[in-house]
Amino acid sequence: MNNIKISVIIPVYNVENTLKKCLDSVINQTLYNIEIICVNDGSTDNSLGILEKYESMDSRIKIITKINEGLGAARKTGLDIASGEYIFFVDSDDCIVIDALKKIYENGINNNSDVVMLDLLEYNEKDKKLNKNGDDIYNVALYLDDEEIDFNNFSFTINEIKFFLLNRGFGAYTKCYKHSFLKKYNDFYFPKHIIFEDMFFHVQVLLRANRISFCPYRLYIYRLFNENSILNTVNKSMKIFNIFDAIDNIENFLIKNKQMNNYKIEFELYVIEQLKQYVPKVSKQYSSEFFAKTEKYLAKLNLSKSELSKVSTYHSKSYEDIIKAIQKQ
Question: For domain 6-228, which architecture applies?
Answer without folding.
Answer: Alpha-Beta Complex (3.90)
